[in-house]
Amino acid sequence: QVQLVESGGGLVQAGGSLRLSCAASGRTFIGYTMGWFRQAPGKEREFVAAITWGGGNTNYADSAKGRFTISRDLAKNTVYLQMNSLKPDDTAVYYCAAGVRYSDPRDYWGKGTLVTVSS
Prior knowledge:
By secondary structure, the chain is mainly beta. The protein has no helices and 11 strands.
């Protein structure tokens, strides 16, 4: 049974940084893409960033480029999202996901972690 468990969310001031973690278990993720999505109150869930488990190729939403960095630690089966220069608009529940589609990895989901950016 695949499990994706997020951690690292919290309250941060605008301009600050947070690092989210996603511990993945339950299967081998070779051939999968790991992603981060977010959902703000009253809005649809949107793509933030993705990384291929094997090759480490990355993909970012325009809103994340230059501020967020996705990475993975194969030994720890963990995916990270380093978020810098945070803005109030980044406030959302952030979800870890895994899937076979590089552009939209949605086969498995974590339960999410809340990030709140105060102005």
